[in-house]
Amino acid sequence: MRRALGYDAHMRFAILTHDHPLLHWDLLLECGGICRTWRLLAPPDTLAALRAETFPDHRVFYLDYEGPVTGGRGRVSRWDGGRLVWTTARHDFIRVLCQGHRWNGVLTLRQIQGHWWATFAPRQSPIR
């Protein structure tokens, strides 16, 4: 399925804690040389659905970056990150497998009535 989606098996994800303009978490999913990005306003360690605001694509550089953000836009620190496998990518529905230190499982992003929602379901076994 990855081949059909046009994504390779070596993609990554990151979740960055960002303190500007208010505390939030940037969710970055690597995709074809860029990172699709959403802002989560609640901590990503919950199993509840989280409101996810779309943001402009980020450079893959940010998958590993920690420190000040240019233009006086605060600081970012890595909350989690790791391997990513795309399983479904539609305009209103995305499902990926994440294997990080904190997140190991299935991330689903759904667009419902114009708003994106993220849910994470942990799994016991690592991604193969």
Give, in order, the helices and strands.
Answer: HEEEEEEEEE
Q: In order across it, which strands form the biggest sheet?
A: 1-2-3-4-9-8-7-6
* Total helical segments: 1
User: How many E-type strands?
Assistant: 9
- Main sheet properties: 8 strands, antiparallel, barrel
What's the number of structural domains? 1
Average per-residue pLDDT, rounded, comes to 91
Termini Cα gap: 14 Å
Beta-strand percentage?
over 45%
Uncertain stretches of 5 or more adjacent residues: none
Structural category is mainly beta
Helix content: under 10%
Shape: globular
- Please compute the radius of gyration using only Cα atoms: 14 Å
Protein name: DNA ligase D 3'-phosphoesterase domain-containing protein
InterPro entries: LigD_PE_domain
Organism: Schlesneria paludicola
Domain DNA ligase D 3'-phosphoesterase: 17-105
Concise overview:
With 128 residues, this protein is mainly beta.
How would you characterize this protein structure?
This protein has one domain. It is built from 1 helix and 9 strands. Strands 1-2-3-4-9-8-7-6 form an 8-stranded antiparallel beta barrel. The two termini are 14 Å apart.
Keywords, please?
mainly beta, 1 helix, 9 strands, globular
